[in-house]
Amino acid sequence: MLFNKSSNGAAEMKSLLGFIYATKSFENMITDIELASDELISLLGAEFYREIESFYHSGGYDNPGNDPVKIVWKELVHRVQLPIAFYAYRSFAAHGDLTHSDKGRQILVSEFEKPAFEWMIMRDDHSMLMKAHKLTDRLLQFLDENKTDEKILAKWINTEVYKASKDNLISSAAAFDAIFPIHQSRRFYLKVLPFIREVERTRLIPVLTRETYEGLIAFIRYPNASDNPLLNYTRIPLVMYTMAIAARRLAVEILPDGVFQNYISGTQSARAKNPVEMEFKTEVAQLLDKQGDHALSALQQYLAKMAAQNAGTCFSQESLTERHSSENQFFRA
């Protein structure tokens, strides 16, 4: 575990989460910390996480001195601990606010303290989740900025997640964000990488051909000064179809803030909460699919135009509506 060195877990959590009481029982949060750690392990990879954990328990963590490598790794430990602490405490607070007795779940009310209103709890819960997401993004940014450290370079760039991000048509959160705003969230981008690969395999490669697809991947790896219009045409349907899959399959809380988030009134009870119903998510997904279809059609037309130019023939883009008879309601041959 990346906490509780020298049995100092409660103080560590207090230093990371300044709003909690120092008297909070660390032992009661251990399960939530372990579960929250899995979220980071899925991004960093088990081997890299064990390296970070090993450094945390070493003497170099306590006394980094002026060693630049140890200083970077000490900061890395801190960057990993922060999102874990927020994810874990958010989970713990859901049941930690209650007393579990032989009479069932109860709350303690005194003359001076009363339980918060449910809408307040929901707002606080949402705030902790967004901070955890942003801290995860800051961690990933820190890793990218410190790849000059040989050990970080070797571990980070060899994780399955990192390698997968460099082997598709959208190789960064910034490239994704240029088409569909995700606040340049690297966390979210890595979450939808499997969907990106799925769309490439099922939707784009059949249109592009494997040879053209691999040519675009090579261009991304070794770009030149010129632009690549085909890549631009390809990325739009890829992003739209990816977001459609995300809308259907991912939990609302995983999606970027503001995309499909719940709305919670700040002045009303929890009944004012408007959950993102499955029907609404399906409707949004269908809209994204339709936008993806239009973009894919534009890609197909661009490919046909390029093929005609290479063959030395004329390319004419005919609209089916021009052949439609409003009187007879059929397409004229």
Give descriptors for this structure.
single chain, 333 residues, mainly alpha, 2 domains, two-stranded antiparallel sheet, 61% helix, 3% strand, flat
Write a brief structural summary.
The chain is mainly alpha-helical and 333 residues long. It is 61% helix and 3% strand.
Number of DSSP helical runs: 14
Number of domains: 2
Question: Shape, please?
Answer: flat
Question: Cα distance, first to last residue?
Answer: 72 Å
Give me the side-by-side strand order of the main sheet: 1-2
% residues in beta strands: under 5%
Helix content: 55-70%
What is the N-to-C order of secondary-structure elements (H for helix, E for strand)?
HHHHHEEHHHHHHHHHEE
Helix/strand/pairing class, anyone?
mainly alpha
Number of strands: 4
> What is the average per-residue confidence, as pLDDT, rounded to a whole number?
82
- Biggest β-sheet: count, sense, barrel? 2 strands, antiparallel
Give unreliable regions as ranges: 262-273, 319-326
Rg, nearest Å: 26 Å
